[in-house]
Amino acid sequence: MNDASTPALTRLGTFVAEAALTADDLSHDQLRAAVADCLGCILAGVGMPVSAKARAAVRAMGIGGTAAVLGTGQRTAPAQAAFLNATAGHALDFDDWEAPGNTHPTVVILPALLACTRPGTAGADLIAPYLAGFEVIARLGEALNLEHYGAGWHSTATLGTLGATAAVARLMRLDARHSAHAMALAISRATGYTCQFGSNAKPLQAGFAAQAAVECAYLAAAGAEGQLHALDHAGGFAALTGGANPQRLRDALDRLGQPLALSEHGIALKPWPNCSYTHRLMTTLLGLRDGLRPESIARIDLHLPDVHAAILPFHQPRDHGEALFSLPFACAMALVHGDLTLADTAREAWTDPQIVTLIRRTHVHPFHPRRPELNFDPEEPDRAVVTLDDGKVLTSTCTYPLGAPQNPLAADRIKAKLDANIAPRLAGLADTLLDWPAAPDLLDLIDKIADPA
User: Fold this and answer.
1) What does pTM read for this prediction?
2) Which pLDDT score, from 0 to 100, does residue 4 have?
3) Right CATH number for 276-398 from 3.40.50.12240, 3.30.1330.120, 3.10.290.10, 3.30.450.40?
4) Contacts of 393 (CB under 8 A, 6+ apart)
């Protein structure tokens, strides 16, 4: 029964446990690439300071287990493995994103699933759980809208917690009731703030989401229960975290699986390791580079929605964390080098004199969009205006950034990114990772990347 009196979590639990979740060709291709891309991001991120700090903390707590912390040789309990792998996967902000939930979905879903993988679990066995988790994230994103994110909630840590919990519940084959209670418990763990961006807390919030997903699914399996009205109650998650609209929530739940949210909305793979809200302007500036001498640039004016600009508060970054959320730095790199790579961040490219000069000449102009419910409004693209020292003005716009479903990365670029992220210790393994759905036993694949020689 799906009338207005049925709690939203009951409906979600029924869907997660009972829906026949089969990927069509489009969603299968996107899922295949997203999982491999996330594995690459995890392996690239294990060397980041925040990942090392997180591993040190888990070791200090003396938590043992057999779940793999990828790329490290460390083993720990499932919840802690999910935490560490998700933190590493988000440390570089190189992992995928989606709209309408405005989350990084795979970096919370996949580590939670890998932590709960048991002997005999095939690669294909992850498909339905992933689709369940993505569906919960995307439909709740439709319901809460960008008002949730705009209010300051880090949706990867909020909606992502619920979606990752749904994914683990499906993998563990919890029934509808237990799945609903797992998500009810997850609501009590679903928190994170965009004001933390630029610090260690940002990737740690992704780690907390994956950890909570494992813990809440296990708690529900053991019989722990929450309030099934915790999502749609007047004092519940939707009402308290912004964007509450009971009819919009019901409408979103009516669309569960019709079609699959992954097929409908797609998923974006990042071409550059920084916040995706810089990517529209980076994309459009690439088109202005031909024949352009950076030293001839007198002024750069960047126009973007205010909700995006609010996530990018750092003009001249002082460190890597701030560089991830610096629009002037990202755009200077696009103009000077036509790219932004992990090697650029490792060499602290934001300190290069040529880049610093362009940052100082950059002016950011947020505007309030006419349709704030849209993450990217085709009628209001980002706009870059570059003024040269001879008075010539170059203008360019971009609606969908490189990597978005509407402007996807080519297959060879996806593989090149994966090759770079897993090098040098796992060089040559990209094709194996991309073929993860065909793995007869995921633990064998996990073992290959758990402790690279």
Assistant:
1) 0.97
2) 73
3) 3.30.1330.120
4) 385, 386, 387
